[in-house]
Design a protein that fits this description.
Layout: E1 33-34, E2 37-38, H1 39-43, E3 45-48, H2 49-54, H3 76-93, E4 97-101, H4 102-105, H5 112-130, E5 136-141, H6 160-179, E6 184-187, E7 193-194, H7 202-223, E8 228-231, E9 241-242, H8 247-256, E10 263-268, H9 269-274, H10 279-288, E11 292-296, H11 315-327, E12 336-338, H12 349-376, H13 378-386, H14 393-399, H15 403-413, H16 424-432
Parallel strand pairs: 3-4, 3-12, 4-5, 5-6, 6-8, 8-10, 10-11, 11-12
Antiparallel strand pairs: 1-2, 7-9
Helix pairs in contact: 3-5, 5-6, 6-7, 10-11, 11-12
The structure holds D-xylulose and cobalt (II) ion (CO).
Length: 435
Amino acid sequence: MSTGFFEGLSKVTYQGAQSTEPLVYRHYNPEEVVLGKRMADHLRFAVAWWHSFAWEGGDPFGGATFQRPWHPQDDMGRAKMKADVAFEMFDLLGVPYYCWHDADLRPEQGSFAANLSTLDEITDYLGEKMQGRDIGLLWGTANMFSDRRWMSGASTNPDPDVFAYAAATVKGCLDATHKLGGQNYVLWGGREGYETLLNTDMGQELDHMGRFLNMVVDYKHKIGFEGTILVEPKPQEPSKHQYDFDAATCIGFLRKYGLEGEVKLNLEQGHAILAGHSFEHEIAVAAADGMLGSIDMNRNDYQSGWDTDQFPNNVPEVALAYYHILKAGGLGTGGTNFDAKLRRQSLDPVDLIAGHVGAMDVCARGLKAAAAMIEDGGLEDALTDRYAGWSSEAAQAMLGSDLEAIQARVLAEGIEPAPRSGRQEILENYVNRFV
Ligand code: XUL
Ligand code: CO
């Protein structure tokens, strides 16, 4: 029986680019084959439970603006109603995946044992709702940043009891993710960082975080969880400085603690911007090390400089992100999670649908543009041409040589490099033909 929350709204269908209807897909056609694969299988869209269903519309200056029938979110009956509405939205959108934090699903009961048992109960309920539906869990994760117990960190907390609480929490969340057939498990270190070095032993905190992540990997293997463990870079907010600053920092961290073959990255568009990078930079950094795992697709407001978690609406940006994803061989077990929330004035159920429909269409358009660039091969040809000198025998031999021999060759052959144009404007014009 329907909850009636989305009353009057019907299943969103693909109508093609000419359609002027507001709630249809103009570009997202899940069955359309792009570069030999269904669009749905390239994009692997997921809805984020927290922003869509748990977030109440508050900001630092004011409280809740949304008044959902499952608020306040403090008992199991309402948690189940929230789940009913969530699955109604998944059906309307036709999304193949969703993601959650433990705290989004279950009411906060104040004790670890009670929270563990309600998490078990609500995830059993989700499992029942997944039966007979074409929907999977892209990833689960633990919210180890909202409650005051986490204020000084989770695995990096100076208090070993908090480390223990974090380990116990992640075990429960990994068990629940495994039970629901999750494709990945994410750790975002929301409080894994510091406010001031005056009270922080950074080296010890990083060692604890590395040990913690090794325990997560060991446990994953012990229970036979075949999904990918992902960490999610973000430079700051809520901590002043977060240890998982950006992709490059995370890769260095994973190598230091021997986790490079085990853990990949969940890259978020808005986090890349906060770190002073473009999204495609972060994707290319991860891809170069074989650590591209999954993406959180949202955008930030470029004027406010804060993590505003808005639905994506910029096709050229999204196209370059998917270009690098396609070049890297795709998202694997990962997907495109909309870690995006409505604006706090967008009160109506239809706003939730519109946010996702627009975002899915922007991504589909971006993917098609990226695929067209790959098929055309113009960027790849330009790269091949730019690095062509390296295919010569002499250039390759130099890499196995040394400074003395190279200097002797430069003198003997009278080598004087001739500067060449990088052709940036020509390449930008090229990209604009596709987006
Ligand atoms: C916070 C953020 C999180 C993670 C999951 O900025 O992105 O929602 O994706 O904890
Ligand atoms: Co995120």
